[in-house]
Automatic annotation (TrEMBL), chain A:
Protein name: L-aspartate oxidase
Any one Gene Ontology molecular-function term assigned to this protein's record: L-aspartate oxidase activity
Keyword Ion transport: no
Domain Fumarate reductase/succinate dehydrogenase flavoprotein-like C-terminal: 457-499
Residue ranges occupied by any FAD-dependent oxidoreductase 2 FAD-binding domain in the UniProt entry: 7-214
Catalytic activity: L-aspartate + O2 = iminosuccinate + H2O2
Alphabetized PANTHER family for the sequence: L-ASPARTATE OXIDASE (PTHR42716), L-ASPARTATE OXIDASE, CHLOROPLASTIC (PTHR42716:SF2)
Alphabetized InterPro entries for the sequence: FAD-dep_OxRdtase_2_FAD-bd, FAD/NAD-bd_sf, Fum_R/Succ_DH_flav-like_C_sf, Fum_Rdtase/Succ_DH_flav-like_C, NadB
UniProtKB/TrEMBL annotation, chain B:
Keyword Repeat: yes
The UniProt record lists the keyword Transport: yes
Xref: SUPFAM superfamilies: 4Fe-4S ferredoxins
An MF annotation (GO) of this entry: metal ion binding
Classification via InterPro entries: 4Fe4S_Fe-S-bd, 4Fe4S_Fe_S_CS, Fe-S_Ferredoxin
Protein name as catalogued: NAD-dependent dihydropyrimidine dehydrogenase PreA subunit
Tree of life domain: Bacteria
Pfam family name, one: Fer4_7
Length: 522, 114
């Protein structure tokens, strides 16, 4: 057992966790960062890269940036949060340029273009900065449960060191959950570490979730590959197998047409609306977009190739742990949330921010959560390491009955209910309700017996987290009896003015939903 | 998925063991890392990007191939470890991030970067 104490524990080493660790350390906290994989490569950003919602501080540009997506998000975003995210993102991107010397490309006037980040380069430099900040980094050390003190405040976490094959524990004054969203092991690029673990930990501690109905993001990828880079499909035409054009199919608004077609026949694609100049620029901008094509001998600009849609769940959806304070605190004392683990409804409403808004949210919320956690820990006055703590984990680690294995069967059962397009993307109450029934039974079985030994506890907990996530998603999706944002109900295609409010979700054995009280800024 | 760790090129630095986000590799008894849990590979190409001697090959298909591809052929046409060169990592190379200016997605828009 590795037993550490710290002021702040950050769970997760994607951009949100890295920023949280740096900012907590800059605020004077002694910080431990534990990542499921490796700080610098794990998570949805590191292998992919992303646009960033970076807008110069000019009032008209900021106004346009905020107004541009409000309708798309079903008017559930908050102008105050959007404005402060734009401010913080601008500051953090400038830090990347000045402190980390990130090599931003320059335009014809020699000015840096700071609207995007290449994942490997961004996260490699973030790792360097985290380590220079004095943060103790535990790679390959997934957290498996939170610890709480006698009053219910979160007081650290326990997990497993995969490379050393032994458990670890960190007693901490405060914890930042930056563990990412949940993509249900769909093989979407970089997302297999994102199994929704943080939301499970938070719910066990008594935290609430928000926006869980907005969880049906799917990304286009060449069939049987992982590369879910979608921007360049705006230059594509989609086809039936017989070579006729698939009408209405597209990257931005036509994914449901692709999904519907894929239920019964293959969909082919060709990036045939890019000029030779565009094609050259594409290779410079996103080298990884071309890996599947180059390595399978496909010229995507002239050849037809089959595509698929990979589920991104709450990675590119907007739901997650509910934020209740400007410092990204939650309803649980000592617990903070950042990045995709946290709700992004505050800035995206009910429609995915895609990479751009999510990247801005990750660096902003990470900054605030790190600073907030450091402040909270300082307020404990050195008592953090002295508290008596108990572990909060239940499903997958402390079953109600005799322990048995079987995480892979539970994962397969959950995937069967959340990956199919006609259940999650093309939503209908008549299909969501039976799927939720199956998921509830899966949860009861898992809750009763699932427990695996050694490193197996990590897989068991991920299976539990995915099951819980799927149930929160579908319970919320059934409760929102309208179409709003990315939650499109085929049986209820209209937006209902009476449901212009956010929806909170929570619970484990019994899942509840209720409208958020208080007005949504509009 | 990861298909090849080249015995001829590997310098036993264990960088791939360290950086793999899904813990696919184990240290090999003879120094060359072993692909111990291939089914956990998420085809993210990060091990290939980090390998300092271009000893790795990640096939883009997100399932294991029946037989590993032909290493000699991949080495001969420059594909082995090519992702590292494409993102401009390695001694003497310019980071690709600095040249990453893509096309505009619409006529009035700014160029796409990243």
């Amino acid at each position: 057992m590795t037993d550490l104490t710290a002021d702040v524990l950050v769970a997760g080493g994607g951009p949100a966790g890295a920023w949280a660790a740096i900012k907590a350390a800059e605020a004077g906290a002694d910080v431990v960062l534990a990542d499921k994989g490796y700080l610098g490569t794990s998570g949805a950003t590191a292998s992919a890269g992303t646009g960033v919602w970076y807008v110069e501080p000019e009032p008209a540009a900021r106004e346009a940036a905020m107004a541009g997506r409000e309708a798309l998000g079903g008017y559930l975003a908050d102008r105050g949060w959007m404005a402060r995210v734009l401010d913080q993102t601008y500051a953090n991107m400038n830090e990347l340029a000045e402190v980390s010397r990130y090599p931003f490309p320059v335009d014809g006037d020699g000015r840096q273009i700071r609207r995007g980040l290449q994942g490997p380069e961004y996260m490699r430099r973030m790792r360097v900065r985290v380590r220079r900040s004095g943060v103790r980094v535990l790679d390959h050390s997934p957290v498996t449960e939170l610890l709480a003190d006698g009053a219910g405040a979160v007081a650290g976490a326990a997990g497993y060191r995969l490379r050393d094959d032994r458990p670890f524990r960190v007693r901490a004054g405060a914890v930042v959950l930056a563990t990412g969203g949940c993509a249900f092991l769909s093989r979407a690029l970089g997302c297999d570490v994102n199994t929704g673990d943080g939301a499970l930990f938070a719910a066990e501690a008594g935290a609430e979730l928000s926006g869980m109905e907005f969880s049906n993001a799917y990304a286009i990828a060449p069939a049987f590959t992982s590369v879910t880079k979608t921007a360049f499909y705006s230059f594509a035409t989609f086809y039936h197998a017989d070579g006729t054009v698939l009408e209405g199919a597209g990257s931005r608004r036509g994914r449901s047409v692709i999904a519907r077609t894929l239920l019964s026949e293959p969909v082919l694609c060709r990036i045939d609306r890019a000029t030779p100049e565009d094609q050259r620029a594409m290779r410079l901008a996103q080298a990884n977009f071309f890996l599947p094509f180059d390595r399978q001998g496909i010229d995507p600009f002239t050849d037809l190739f089959p595509v698929t849609l990979l589920a991104e769940g709450t990675v590119r959806g907007t739901g997650g742990i509910r934020i209740t304070g400007a410092d990204c605190s939650t309803t649980v004392p000592g617990l903070y949330a950042a990045g995709d683990a946290a709700t992004r409804e505050l800035i995206c409403g009910g429609f995915t921010g895609g990479g751009s808004h999510n990247a801005a949210w990750a660096m902003s919320s990470g900054t605030w959560a790190g600073q907030g956690a450091a402040r909270y820990a300082a307020g404990l006055g050195g008592r953090a390491g002295a508290r008596t703590v108990h572990a909060l984990g239940e499903a997958g680690v402390r079953p109600e009955g005799p322990a048995a294995g079987g995480h892979a069967d539970y994962v397969a059962a959950v995937q069967a209910e959340v990956l199919p397009y006609d259940k999650n993307l093309l939503r209908h109450g008549g299909r969501l309700a039976p799927a939720l029934d199956v998921l509830d039974r899966t949860w009861r079985d898992l809750r009763g017996t699932l427990r695996e030994e050694g490193a197996g506890v990590v897989r068991a907990r991920s299976a539990a987290a995915m099951t819980a996530h799927a149930r929160w998603m579908y319970r919320a999706a059934l409760t929102r009896t309208e179409t709003r944002g990315m939650h499109k109900r085929q049986d209820l295609p209209d937006q209902d003015p009476a449901q212009h409010r956010r929806l909170l979700t929570g619970g484990l054995d019994e899942i509840w939903t209720r409208p958020e009280t208080g007005a949504v800024a509009s | 998925m990861i298909e090849i760790v080249s015995r001829g090129r590997c310098i036993a630095c264990d960088k791939c063991v360290d950086v793999c986000p899904t813990n696919v590799f184990d240290r090999g008894a003879d120094g060359v890392p072993v692909i111990a849990r291939q089914s956990d590979c998420q085809t993210c190409f990060m091990c290939e990007a980090y390998c300092p001697v271009d000893a790795l090959f990640v096939d883009p298909r997100s399932h294991a191939l029946p037989e590993p591809p032909d290493e000699a052929a991949l080495a001969a046409d420059g594909t082995l470890g090519a992702y590292r060169a494409q993102i401009g990592w390695g001694r003497g190379r310019t980071p690709g991030a600095g040249r990453a200016i893509g096309p505009s997605l619409n006529p009035a828009g700014a160029p796409l970067t990243s």
